[in-house]
Amino acid sequence: MAACLRFTRRVWKSFVENKGHDQQCFPNLRILDAKPGELRASLKIEPYNLNRVGTVHGGLIMSLTDTLGSLAVATKGQYMTGVSVDIGTSFVKPAGRVGEELTAKAVVTGIGKSLAYTRVDFYNAQGQLAAYGHHTKYVGKSAGHKNDVKFSEDGERVIEGEDID
Question: For 58, left (φ over 0), alpha (ψ -120 to 50), or beta?
């Protein structure tokens, strides 16, 4: 398994172990792949993910935009992923029903000393773009954490910091 994927899954595990919002809303989120600046994830849609018309609730998409944007920042080697300063989502098509798989691709579109910008695209079970979100994070005080790493360009290896399995 590539170092970037291991690291990103470790950051996600720390979110879940916090027993906060992420663990309550989508404990079954799976990180499928990660390389520096990009990740793919999926979520099996459960009854508690629905709105009253039986499709994925927009609040779930907003929450996933937040979390997956944060995990996209983690793919750049940052263990602490900052705090949100702006977030938004546009809804294009229904994202799915119970039992279906919602997939997402999160990308870091820019990162500097203070701010990180991400975009998250969501796809329904038919592979159609269901929604897309943007997420801006303040990362100025989160960089330099003892668990931060630097990856090789392809994300296969850690070239700075500790590679914990």
Answer: alpha
